[in-house]
């Protein structure tokens, strides 16, 4: 009998896992540079958190959530997104004023599996709470852009838009509804259902994209405050030298967004799955889940797609491989010393032949092979175009100097 992962889930092992590890390290570096400490929330949350926060008419809530009743009779859901949980954690903490958090972990949506879209997927993201002004929007967007560049996503496009706020958006929504009513017979069943409940979401339909024609533009409906906010965001991004494209059809998929919305596109990916992530402002979310008024802005990136879009290729995860001519026990002791010095070292624990150990080192594509011949005083250090015999205590300094 053999087992495979459930449909829509995957195993991640070397060598591809090394690209993940490197890009996750890049994420930790860049999110820390911008002042975002780690925030970790439960994988399970009360179902009501997402119904109230994400929106009970969104596809995420109506079709994609993994929801069940626990043994205490409570309805719980495997988290389908990160923002609602992070905002809940902020409200529960009692923190006040400006607050930041960065997260990383698995999320779950019941979707049709395909390349770059799985039922268990990994996301990284940030939330910036307590600041209403456009500086917060611009900083968040810049962080996402800089990280993706550093992660090796060279074919990258940033798209931005404003979807207004509760003051001006109702007029736009009403105009959209009137427009889509005239197209009802040409639209898919899902879009026809959304005309009455959430016409903004019709703009996000990939199935009906070619049927939409030229719907009303949000720019014609923005109130003065929203228009000024959007103008400031654009100006700040230009001053930060972050290139962008304005996309008036960009609404994102969750109900909590207000004003700024944005999306990062991996233009080297297949067009059906080329969005590597995005986000926006969500000034009403905290109140929607029963908390005090708290402005916020953030983004989430689909890590699977970031890796797909990255130019990085799997490399070795080791600094050196230790070949022992006298068995594994002495090698364990020597490797332990080198590891404590900060080197990533592997060796053979089975006591195979020297020839077999060299074959393993070549298969792992390590840059350096260390040969221990039984004399603890010296190690034979072999690199591609260099070979030197060194005292054990000098090996680490030598290898770090040649990285």
Structure description:
The structure is a single chain. The protein has 403 residues and is α+β, with helices and mostly antiparallel strands. Helices cover 35% and strands 22% of the residues. It contains 13 helices and 15 strands. The strands form three sheets. The chain has a seven-stranded mixed sheet with strand order 4-5-10-9-8-6-7, sandwiched between helices. A hairpin with a 5-residue loop joins strand 2 (66-69) and strand 3. The radius of gyration is 26 Å and the shape is elongated.
Outline the fold blueprint:
Elements: H1 16-33, E1 44-46, H2 47-55, H3 59-64, E2 66-69, E3 75-78, H4 83-93, E4 99-108, E5 120-129, H5 134-150, E6 156-162, H6 169-181, H7 189-197, H8 224-239, E7 245-246, E8 258-266, E9 275-281, H9 285-288, E10 296-302, H10 303-309, E11 320-324, H11 328-340, E12 345-347, H12 354-363, E13 368-372, E14 378-383, E15 386-391, H13 392-401
Parallel strand pairs: 6-7, 11-12, 11-13
Antiparallel strand pairs: 1-3, 2-3, 4-5, 5-10, 6-8, 8-9, 9-10, 13-14, 14-15
Helix pairs in contact: 1-5, 5-8
């Amino acid at each position: 009998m053999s087992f495979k992962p459930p449909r829509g889930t995957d195993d991640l092992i070397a060598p591809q896992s090394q690209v993940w590890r490197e890009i996750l390290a890049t994420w930790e570096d860049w999110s820390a540079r911008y002042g975002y400490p780690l925030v970790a929330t439960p994988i399970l949350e009360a179902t009501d958190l997402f119904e109230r926060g994400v929106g009970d008419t969104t596809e995420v809530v109506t079709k994609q959530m993994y929801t069940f009743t626990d043994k205490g009779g409570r309805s719980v859901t495997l988290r389908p997104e990160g923002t609602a949980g992070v905002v809940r954690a902020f409200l529960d903490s009692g923190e006040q004023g400006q607050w930041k958090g960065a997260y990383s972990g698995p999320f779950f949506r019941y979707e049709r599996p395909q390349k770059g879209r799985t039922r268990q997927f990994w996301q990284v993201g940030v939330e910036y709470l307590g600041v209403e002004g456009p500086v917060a929007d611009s900083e968040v967007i810049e962080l996402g852009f800089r990280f993706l560049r550093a992660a090796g996503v060279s074919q990258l496009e940033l798209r931005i838009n404003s979807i207004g706020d509760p003051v001006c958006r109702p007029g736009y929504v009403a105009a959209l509804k009137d427009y889509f009513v005239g197209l009802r017979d040409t639209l898919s069943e899902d879009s026809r259902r959304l005309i009455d409940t959430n016409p903004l979401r019709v703009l996000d339909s990939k199935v009906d994209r070619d049927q939409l024609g030229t719907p009303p533009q949000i720019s014609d409906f923005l109130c003065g405050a929203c228009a000024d906010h959007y103008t400031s965001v654009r100006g700040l991004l230009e001053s930060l030298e972050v290139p962008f494209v304005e996309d008036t059809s960009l609404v994102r998929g969750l109900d909590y967004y207000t004003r700024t919305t944005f999306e990062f596109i991996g233009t080297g990916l297949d067009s059906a799955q080329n969005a590597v992530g995005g986000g926006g402002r969500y000034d009403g979310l905290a109140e929607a889940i029963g908390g005090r008024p708290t402005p916020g802005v953030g983004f989430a990136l689909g890590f699977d797609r970031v890796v797909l879009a990255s130019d990085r290729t799997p490399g070795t995860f080791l600094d050196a491989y230790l070949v022992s001519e006298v068995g594994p026990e002495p090698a364990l002791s020597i490797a332990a010393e080198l590891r404590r010095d900060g080197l990533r070292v592997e060796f053979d624990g089975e006591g195979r032949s020297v020839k077999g150990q060299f074959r393993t080192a070549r298969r792992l594509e390590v840059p350096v092979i260390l040969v221990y011949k039984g004399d603890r005083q010296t190690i034979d250090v072999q690199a591609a175009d260099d070979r030197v015999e060194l005292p054990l205590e000098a090996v680490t300094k030598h290898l770090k100097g040649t990285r």
